[in-house]
């Protein structure tokens, strides 16, 4: 499938972003296509790499990691060895949920989830100990999750 998307493709992607558990029949009913057309479109979107996977969004308590944080990382060095050391660390650290490479003052933004503040402290210490790699960290603790992956978690009346 080319990167050219029609209105039905966009509608299907939006519906699946909101609820990845929708069946082809449910999608068909919502979009106005047959179930077989929806199935073909979904498979084409998956094969084109536009749908990367289907995941359950867990609460922090259900995940066993109720303390969330955001860590901004400034690299000391951008040599291939330093970057690979950092990437290896984030690949292996289960507490690191998302990693974004940035422009601006910091090089990376990490979204982390840990069982408690002691575990967050240990993670920060381990990041700080990456020799010849990390120069500065700035950590913030998440007080409330309001919207994630396009889905509103906390609504204010």
TrEMBL record:
<dbReference type="InterPro" id="IPR036390">
    <property type="entry name" value="WH_DNA-bd_sf"/>
</dbReference>
<keyword id="KW-0238">DNA-binding</keyword>
<keyword id="KW-0805">Transcription regulation</keyword>
<dbReference type="Pfam" id="PF01037">
    <property type="entry name" value="AsnC_trans_reg"/>
</dbReference>
<feature type="domain" description="HTH asnC-type">
    <location>
        <begin position="5"/>
        <end position="66"/>
    </location>
</feature>
<keyword id="KW-0804">Transcription</keyword>
<dbReference type="InterPro" id="IPR000485">
    <property type="entry name" value="AsnC-type_HTH_dom"/>
</dbReference>
<dbReference type="InterPro" id="IPR019888">
    <property type="entry name" value="Tscrpt_reg_AsnC-like"/>
</dbReference>
<dbReference type="Pfam" id="PF13412">
    <property type="entry name" value="HTH_24"/>
</dbReference>
<dbReference type="InterPro" id="IPR019887">
    <property type="entry name" value="Tscrpt_reg_AsnC/Lrp_C"/>
</dbReference>
<dbReference type="InterPro" id="IPR036388">
    <property type="entry name" value="WH-like_DNA-bd_sf"/>
</dbReference>
<protein>
    <submittedName>
        <fullName>Lrp/AsnC family transcriptional regulator</fullName>
    </submittedName>
</protein>
<dbReference type="InterPro" id="IPR011008">
    <property type="entry name" value="Dimeric_a/b-barrel"/>
</dbReference>
């Amino acid at each position: 499938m080319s990167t050219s998307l029609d209105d039905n493709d966009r509608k299907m992607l939006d519906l699946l972003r909101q609820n990845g558990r929708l069946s082809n029949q449910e999608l068909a009913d919502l979009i106005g296509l047959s179930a077989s057309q929806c199935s073909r479109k979904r498979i084409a979107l998956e094969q084109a790499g536009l749908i990367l996977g289907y995941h359950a969004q867990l609460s922090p308590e259900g995940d066993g990691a109720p303390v969330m944080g955001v860590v901004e990382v400034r690299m000391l060095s951008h040599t291939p060895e330093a970057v690979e050391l950092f990437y290896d660390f984030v690949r292996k650290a289960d507490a690191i949920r998302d990693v974004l490479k940035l422009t601006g003052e910091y090089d990376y933004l990490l979204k982390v989830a840990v069982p408690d503040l002691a575990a967050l402290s240990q993670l920060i210490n381990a990041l700080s100990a990456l020799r010849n790699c990390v120069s500065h960290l700035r950590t913030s603790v998440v007080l409330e999750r309001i919207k994630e992956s396009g889905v509103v978690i906390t609504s204010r009346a």
